[in-house]
Amino acid sequence: MEFLSKTRLFKGFSGEQINEMLTGIDYSVESFSKGDLVLRSGQTYDSLVIIIEGLLCSEVVGGSGSVVRLKNFSSYEVIAPALVFGEEVIFPADLRALADSRILKIKREHFFRLLTENQMLLASYLKLVAEVVHFMSDKLEFLNFNTIRRKLAFYLIRETEKAHYNGRVEIRVTELAEFFGIERPSLSAVVCSFVDEGLISRLRRGVFVVADLSGIMAELD
């Protein structure tokens, strides 16, 4: 289980320490092929899930019947850590393998034992939970905007603030479209229109500089 040292949850622990910690702990390793359903929406979630290798995606079916991808998870990521200790928690979305993948599952009561026996691990877990809450908060904020232009404008403003206004913002169209819950071509068209209107300038593939921040802010008025 030395691979766990590459995860953020077990960061700072050596492979030897992790193997010692897992002595007597109930865990399992499961394999999935591309396209397989790893977890089903409505399924009881009673274990901590960590991706050993591969790529998974959480998805829901939208009102029109189209599949909306919520988030991709790659190797060494923890799936929904905030849900582990809820009472009779059900998983809120389908979790599907986008590539051949393997996951590690640690039963809730055994993971609780790990946390109570190691404060450093507990601190890492609480940090992960806080980051998940922040992600969901961002997701809800974006849902408040009813057009792609407004969603993109809010994203650019937020990312510019994070960069302390060096003006450079990464726009990974495929990932951002999935986060917004929209089609990639639709977002690409809006990005191009922002460039044509002089709101942003393209530096290189996937990297833009904000050229007219006040104009972008006006999109939210």
What's the CATH topology name of the largest domain? Jelly Rolls
Strand count, sense and barrel status of the largest sheet are: 4 strands, antiparallel
Flag low-confidence runs. none
**Shape estimate:** elongated
Q: What is the CATH superfamily label of the largest domain?
A: Jelly Rolls
Adjacency order of strands in the biggest sheet: 1-8-3-6
Write down the Rg: 20 Å
CATH class of the largest domain: Mainly Beta
* Strand elements, count: 11
Q: How many domains is the backbone divided into?
A: 2
CATH architecture annotation of the largest domain: Sandwich
Helix % is 25-40%
Order of helices and strands: HEEEEEEEEHHHEHHEEH
**Percent in strands:** 25-35%
N- to C-terminal distance: 52 Å
Computed structural class: alpha+beta
Q: Please, how many helices?
A: 7
